[in-house]
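Sharing a chain and its predicted structure for anyone who wants a worked example. Both blocks are below, sequence first, C-alpha cells second.
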Amino acid sequence: MGGSAASVEAVLFDWGGTLSVYADVDLLEMWHAAALVLAPHDPSPVAQRLLAAELHAWETHVAAGDQSFTTEELLRSVSAETGLDVLATAQSAYLDAWAKTVEHDPAAFRVLTALKQRGIATGLLSNTHWPRAVHEHWLEKDGLLDLLDVRLYTSDMGHMKPHAEAFRALLDATGVDDASRAVFVGDRPRDDIAGAKAVGMRAVLMTGRPVPPSDVEPDAVLTDLGGLLDVIDGWCR
C-alpha cells in the first residue's frame, strides 16, 4: 500500500473512533437519560422507543442515499407518537450522558499540532446527529478545536459519509482543489475509506475498532494515531 509522490496539503479526520477513543457504550442507557425528562414516571418504554427510532433512522437514511438527520428529529418522532412534549432539556440530558464517555486520543493534540507546524491544513468530517455546538465544546475542552481548520458535522448537512457530497464539501471548505493531495483518516472502511477514495483522496484506516467491514483497500493502515506523522512525512518526500 502506498500513495503518490504528490505533496499532502490537508489531513482530514473522522471523529468517533479516530480522533476520539472508541467507547463501548450502552445506547439504551444514553437514551434513558432523555426518557427520564420526557416521561419521569415511566421512562423505560420511551427509552426503548428512542433507541428503536435511532437505529431505524440510521438504517433508513443510509438506504435512502446516506441522508443525514438530527437528534432533535429523533426526539420529535417519538414525542409525536407518544403524545409527549419535546423539551430542550431532554436533548441536553441525552448529550450529557454521552459526554461522560467522550475521551480524545492522547496522541491527537500532538499529531494535529505537528501537522499544522508542517503547514498542512487539518479538518474534521463526522457522521453525527448531534448538534455542532456539542462537538465543538468537547473539542475545545481538550484543546483540539483550534487545531482543526475546518469542522463539518453531517447534522448540518444534507448527506452523510460516504456520500460524495460530504467529502466534496470538506475539500471545498479546506480549499484543496486536487483531492489526491488530501488524506482522510478514519476507522470505518465504508464511510471513511471508500467514501474518501471515491472522490480521489488518499485514505488511512485505523484498525482494531468493532465496525462493519467493507471491501476497500486503504492507502495505509494504522492501529495507533501516533503513527500517522510517519505516513504523512513519507508521502511528502
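Comments welcome. The chain has a mean pLDDT of 92.
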